[in-house]
Amino acid sequence: MPALIKKNFRSKKGQSLVELTLIVPLMLLLVYGVVEVGSVISTYLTLTHTTREGANLTSRGTAPNTALDAIQLAAAPTIRNDNQAQWTIIYSRLIQNGTPCSFTPPPPCTYIIDPDPVNPGQITRGNFGQTSQLGNVGDTVTIPGVQDVGPGQTFHAIEVYYDYGPSVITFIGNNINQTFYERSIFTNVSN
Question: Model pTM?
Answer without folding.
Answer: 0.81
